Structure formats: structure tokens, C-alpha cells
Amino acid sequence: MLAASPPSPVWNRRRNEKRRRIELASHLASGRILPTDQLTAALEILIAPGDRVVLEGNNQKQADFLSRSLARTNPARLHDLHMIIPSVGRPEHLDIFESGIARKLDFSFSGPQSLRIGQLLQDGCLEIGAIHTYVELYARLFVDLTPNVALVAAYQADRHGNLYTGPSTEDTPALVEATAFRDGIVIAQVNEIVDDPSELTRVDIPADWVDFVVLADRPFFIEPLFTRDPRLIKPVHVLMAMMAIRGIYERHQVQSLNHGLGFNTAAIELLLPTYGEQLGLKGKICRHWTLNPHPTLIPAIESGWVDSVHCFGGELGMEAYVAARSDVFFTGRDGSLRSNRAFCQMAGQYAVDMFIGSTLQMDGDGHSSTVTHGRLSGFGGAPNMGHDPHGRRHASPAWLDLIQTDSLLARGRKLVVQMVETFQGNGQPTIVESLDAVEVARNSGMPLAPVMIYGDDVSHVLTEEGIAYLYKAESLEQRRQMIAAVAGITPIGLRHDPASTAALRQAGLVALPEDLGIRRSEASRSLLAAKSMAELVSWSDGLYQPPARFRSW
Amino acid sequence: MLAASPPSPVWNRRRNEKRRRIELASHLASGRILPTDQLTAALEILIAPGDRVVLEGNNQKQADFLSRSLARTNPARLHDLHMIIPSVGRPEHLDIFESGIARKLDFSFSGPQSLRIGQLLQDGCLEIGAIHTYVELYARLFVDLTPNVALVAAYQADRHGNLYTGPSTEDTPALVEATAFRDGIVIAQVNEIVDDPSELTRVDIPADWVDFVVLADRPFFIEPLFTRDPRLIKPVHVLMAMMAIRGIYERHQVQSLNHGLGFNTAAIELLLPTYGEQLGLKGKICRHWTLNPHPTLIPAIESGWVDSVHCFGGELGMEAYVAARSDVFFTGRDGSLRSNRAFCQMAGQYAVDMFIGSTLQMDGDGHSSTVTHGRLSGFGGAPNMGHDPHGRRHASPAWLDLIQTDSLLARGRKLVVQMVETFQGNGQPTIVESLDAVEVARNSGMPLAPVMIYGDDVSHVLTEEGIAYLYKAESLEQRRQMIAAVAGITPIGLRHDPASTAALRQAGLVALPEDLGIRRSEASRSLLAAKSMAELVSWSDGLYQPPARFRSW
């Protein structure tokens, strides 16, 4: 548990230190079970000042009993921790920096806490190690960020420490493996402890990798992050979805793909059984997916569009539906979903034809970022999937279709699609002269601007105006013209000479809806296979059970 | 277990089919244990014609009892299998194509069998799905290549099916997870079955993921692929290693890295405690490693150079040494190594500063390949690690050091170093006008040439002549000149005007040994920290136990 140090004849200092701490805490525990009311005291023994602690704050599930308990430890005993948190999502993740319990932070995503991270950084309460993508952060756990302690969450444990992480497995296996196999201490909070191993729903993580289990004061917090109410899908989303299906999915024969959580992609999912069916595309596109169990994918699944879905995490309310559709989803012998963010990100990077995402800002070169002033929101997983992986060697029709030369030394290319409205809901342009991220980097002394997706990795930009086929651009200047041609009345769009759009259309570099055989007047909500949460429930045969806040009945 | 099909009200066909087969085979089994002499009969029941079967042929360990038994099944019962084999290393991997048991092959690497794959392809006995890198192949198991059956190898099992994969965990977790959670059948051969779960060394794969265990007729085959006898390191390797340390490792402050299995990199490992020490570099470079437990790394470890090593797989003979150095290696609670190719490849891609590799052929643009006429040798893991991952967002000094602009919109770059002698041992030039891979692709109708590493991903080329700092090249033409400048008397080198080398050296684009303060006469084997296997054993305090064929005592 000590940091790197000069050579020494002792080669198992980490193991000895782990043993020492576990012995010190043994009077609090009953075997591997820590009593709920002793957790804070146990953390003060099992963690040491300066430790690297990986805390399971995920995109969705949160080891929040552990994080709340860590925040209650005595900063005189526990201080200067180096926290590694994939997703900084809860107030206590940052409270520990204010109190001095923690000092340094490595993370990937910080949606709701992004403003406060910026403030703490300015106030000198917090030092950033680095801002990562998810996969990159897991990778460093095996290299130079090996944790001394892992604090993770699971649904169930038995008294030996076997864990059931179930539908929301997410990041847990990666965090536990890196810690357990380098003599770190693994502590899991669970919603339930079963007495007999045979009562455990299934074993996702073997007891050999787990040191302590604690029954949480309440079930771990989990967020239905990927649920989009079809009621909020607007005609412009339908128009853009139609353009995507015709101008990208059909054109390049996209078989395998990832969708994020936007309303644009939700609209695509809901158009497959209607518009996609009319175009005769069933079985030809969108067969294999890497994404969470989106409720808006239910109509496409029920209509037979979907062969397989591998998930990063689960989605609240989708448990029974997923379990009843085991031909489509990855499930265990017990029937419940198996998710795994590390493998799903790997699949989203290397095994799929297309990534399609959205952004808050894109500049005229195609660089995009979700960082705005004062907010350090991080990267999440988008850059893993939203780039062209040069390490890929297998071909697929879509991948080959983007090659622009006859040379056998060319390589194919992943489709990386930016699907954005030219203006945000607040009236701010999406396509801008310069990313806020550049100024943020300059002001806060970052070595590089926090760019989510670089322009040279983007193959297509799709706006409500049209599609720019950037992979065909022969120069940076031409790429700029193509983006400007679909940038509407944003500053970048206004700089563009409309006369040149005709030439770009002629050359097949840009397509407007009419070039794709789409009439804007057809883009109506009536095309959506489900127009409300109730209709999604109905499609699912009553198996989907939306969280209360999504119910209007 | 059926392929994709039209919509149907039945959503658990895979699960039903799995149950059906397991029931059919139940009379052969005792619980989850298949008798050794019943394996072939069981495979004929548990596998169906046309199935996708993933077989653990790895870089090192081989599920060879399973593959030999599969080859003994009756082709009238079992035929047209679609085999997925990470590393095609054994004759029976291909025998099944000759006999008609298998038809289609997806793989990553095929060292010793590469010529025969080419012949079978020409004879029409074998159809290639695709040739992948390792990570890419695992990724597709979760997308469009989900297996119906997995055939894997482990050291031990208990009677429930819990597996100990131990020092040679390698690919097993990825293959099993993709199969077990999509209602595939997982069959593991083991060297030992223990009666009581408490006798199992440790649980690496939970019994919930495993359907059948069979005691193999003999321990699984394993190859000490990463053992390099220091006796075979030549002075030219020492020279190149000195250049690498001074001109690349020191210059860019390379902290974390991957080494492959060549004599060049073995020489670097053996120079760290001598030449590296003289340069005062200990603690400044080479602290974190992603590589197998190379015996030639022992002197550097013993001298305190190495903070951590995460491994793809194990290495025969290194078991006791690794177990005794748990501060450095990833080990389990039982003390033995934990390797994991999926995570180590991910770390090698995203978390390290540098990949350094070798190749059989490189062209004047820097493209390289190990494919030569008639051989389909595959990619292995080199392209995963030997490219600049555009999805990386965290900075390190080495990564930032390769930026050639002041723009905040630049990104850092991974060091991808090609370290090659200008001529191969057989007198053939390494640096060639055109890769054999191009002609192979043309002749066999491949859509693209099987390039191992593309020129635009290579940051440095190091030969016995000098180092070309390709990341500084401002044009393809300049990159060509730089490669030619270090290409010696190969055809590419002879095309180069020696006068321009001076200009390239002046501009810092190329460095000769003397530019790095290295005299060729200093490059002697006497600099090696160990000059023989016996000296490695001695460095290890007798813990390293080389396989018999490496022993001369």
C-alpha cells in the first residue's frame, strides 16, 4: 500500500500492508461482513492517508453508502486521498475535497457536479490528475493508477463475499480486478446479504476478489439516464432521423452501431418500425447494437429489427422486459441482464460500424466539446467510440464504403456522425467560431483544450439543414465549406456562400433533405412508432415498467 | 442457438436450445463433470452443425484436449462449424477444416499455421470471416460473432465448475463472458479437478458461467513464447538498444510502455541496470510495463527499475519468481499471477506512453507487415497497441512531447516505434519498395492489404543506422526521406542522397549514433546485465526456472 520507492529486499510490502489493515479492522467485522453502523470506523482503518481510492461512481449506479460514509470520516485521520471516480455524480464526491479528506481527483465524467469541480479547482481545494474517457481510466488502473482501495456497489452478496452485480454490472469488474490483484482492499456495499451461497441470484464477482461486504443503509442510488419520453421528440428530430436513416444508415449499410441518449437518436429508434419498414430496410441495417437498454428501442425489437444488444449498464424499469427477451440481450443463467461497461466500450470502439452522437458546440473545423465556461464536465465514453480506431483490421461493408482511393494500402474508416441542431434550445448557436473549451483550457492552464471529438475523426455532420459527408473532404478548407453548408444561420453558416452549396451538392459532398427524397412536410411525429411512455409500455406487453417520474397515468 | 430469423413470439430460443442440448448430454455427465473418455461424444451432442464455436487457442496456452477431441468428432454429425480462434497454433485447428467439421474461420494470429491456412483457402476448404487483432476479435464476440459454444482451458476446477485460470488467464474471461451470457455453452478442460471448492487455488471464473468441465488427458499445451536467451543477443542489438534508450526513452521521458518479444527489446531490458544506470535514468523512465513476465526483465526488476508489470499471459518458468515479487506483478490472494489479455491490451492501447515493435518488412512510407507470400499470419495484438489512439484524452509528458504546434486544439500522440535491422538474418532487406502484403491482397482478392502498422501511426523508426523522428515530418515526402536516411543499403536506402542526411540531422529529424553520444565501438555484449539464461536464474535468486530447452547446465 506504499507508493513506489527505492529498491529493497522486501517484495511484498503491499500484501503485508493489506494484511496489517485487515487485521486491525477485524474486531469490527464478522468474517467478511462489516456491520452497517461500523462502516465509517472501518474506512478509517482500512484506508490510509494518501491512498489511491477508486470509488464506484458510475454513469448510472452509485456506491453512495460508501461515498457518504467516506465523507463522514475524520479528516484528521483520513486525508489527502487520491480519488479515482469514473463518474463524479454526487455531492459527497466533492464534499471530501472541501473537508480535506481527498486532495487529488482522476475522473471521466462529472455531469451534475461539473461546475463545482471548476470552483474547487479555482479555490485550490482540488488537484486534477487527469480527465479521462472511461476505458482509458480503467486502463490506467492496471498501469500507473493501481488503487489501494476499491469501494464498489452490488445488488447482493453472500457471507463469503461473492457478489451479484446483475443488470447494473457497469464498471464494477474492472475496478475490482485492478484492485484485488495488486493487493488492494475491495469493499462492496450491497442491497442484500443472503446467508446461503445458493440463494445468491448468480455470482458475477468471486469472493476471492472481495475483502469486505457491507449491507447499505438503503439500496444504491441509480439513475434512469437513458430513458427518453417520446412525447418530447419534436418534428425537427423526426426530420433529422429520416435524413440519418436514408442518407447514412441505408447508404452505407450500417449493420452495427452505438446510440447515445439524445432525442435525435431516440427518434431514429422509433422510426425503424415505420419509416425504416417502408424503405424495406429491415434486416439490412441496425441489427447489432452496443447501448444501454433504451426503452425507445422496444418497438424496433418487437418488430424484429434487432438481433443483439450488448449493454454498458442497465436501465431502471427495463429489467423484466430484458429478462423476457434473452435472444436479444446478454443475460445470465438466472435470466437477468449482464452489462459490462469495459467490454461494451471495447465493442463500441472496435466492433461496430458507426457511432452517432450529439454535442453542445462544434467549431467550423468539426471539433466538438461539451465543456462550457466554468464546467469541467469530462469525456465519458464518447471519444472511445467517437473516433476512427486505427487498430481495427477487420472489414465490414460500411467500413470499406468510406475509402476514397483504390490503393490496397488504404484502410476503412469508422462512421463517426455528429447529429446536431444548428441552435441549442436556449437560442445559442451549436456551430461556433471557437469552442469555449479553448478558452477554458487557456484560462485554467490545461495543456490542451478538452475536445470531445476531433474534426478529423468526424465522418458526417448532420443538421436539420442537411448532411455533410466529411470523409470525402480532400482538404481542411473543403471540410470547412461542407460544415458551413449545413450550418444554417449560425455565424459559421452565414459566412458560407450559398452558391457554393449547389456545387457541393452536385459533387455529392453535401445532401439536403430533397437530395435524399425527403420532404420536410413528411417529418411528423405521426411517424413515431410510439408517441408516449404509455405506448412504449404497451409495445412491451406490459413488461417495461417506467420509473414513476415518467408515468402520467 | 439459431441464427437471426424473422420476428417471432418466442424470445428465448437460444436458452431453450441450450437447455435441450444439455439435457441430451446429461447421461454422459456427472453433474457438470464430463468424463475424459466421453468428451468427443459429448461434443457431438453439445455442438450443432453450423454453430459458431470459439476455441481457446491463445498466444501461449491451448485448449488442446478440446481441439483434439473436436477433430475426432464425426463430420457426418458435426460439420460446417464457424470457428473463432484467437490464435491458430495447432495442426488440429486446421485438420477440422480438411475434414469438413469446420468451414469458416475468424482469427487473430496464426504463426506456425499461417502457410497451411493459405493453402486451405486456395483449396476451397476454408473460408475466412476476417483477420482481426485480439481486442477486436473479443469485441465482436459481444456484437455480431456471439458464440454458441466456448471451448476453453484452465488449470483447475471444482465439481461446481468454478475455474482457476491462474498465471495463464489470457483470453479466457473474455471468451467465457461473451458465450455464457448469451445462452451459449461453456466447456472447460482442466488439468485437475478438486473435490472440495475450498481446495481450489482461487476462483477466476465463477461456476455460474461454466456448463461443463472435463479433466484433460494431459495438461494443456503451453508455449514459453516470450523467453529470449541473452546468449543470442548480438552487438547490433546492443547498439540499437543504446540508441533507443538515449534517443527515445530518455528524450521523451517514457514512463510506461509495452515491449514485444524481439531480441532488440530484450537488449533494452538488459541494458537498463547497466547503461541506463550510468545515464542516471532509474526512476525517470520505464517504471510501468504492460508485457508478459519476460525473464530478461528480471535484472531491471531486481535493480529497482520497475514499479509495476501487468501481463497478457504468463510465461513458463516465471511462476515462482512472479509470486515472490507481488509488489511488482498482479497476483491473486493465493499468490499466483493474474494475467488478462483483454485488460492488458486495453492498457497497452490507452494507458502507456510507448509501443515498440519489430517487423519483417517496412516500405518507404513506413507501412509494415509480417505477411509474406502464401502466409496469412494475422495481426495478434500489435495494431491495438501500435497505433495512436485518437480516443485518448489524458496527458503524459511523453504524449505531450510529440505535439508539433502551439494550438490548444492539437492532441498529444502515442510513441509508436519500429525498431528494425535494415536486413533480416536471411539477407533479405527489411525496408522494401513494396510490401509482399500488397501482392498477397491482390492475388487473394482481399479488400485491403494486411498491414500490421500503418506509416502514419509510426512516430519513430530506429535501425542500426540511426533514428528517424517521423512525428516531426511535415509531409509524406519528408517522411520518406527520413526513412530512407536510416535505411542503409536497402533499395530504399540506396535511393537516398547522403547529402540530404546532413540536413535532416541538422534539423533534428534524423539522429545517428554519434548525434546521441553513442560510439558504435561501445556497443558490446559486456553491457548486458545478464549474458545467459544461467545469469538470469542467478539474478532471480534461483526463483526463475527456465524450461528445459533453455537450460545448458
UniProtKB/TrEMBL annotation, chains A, B:
GO terms for molecular function: transferase activity. Pfam families: Mal_decarbox_Al (PF16957). InterPro entries: MadA (IPR005777), NagB/RpiA_transferase-like (IPR037171). It comes from the Bacteria. PANTHER family: ACETATE COA-TRANSFERASE YDIF, MALONATE DECARBOXYLASE ALPHA SUBUNIT. This is Malonate decarboxylase alpha subunit.
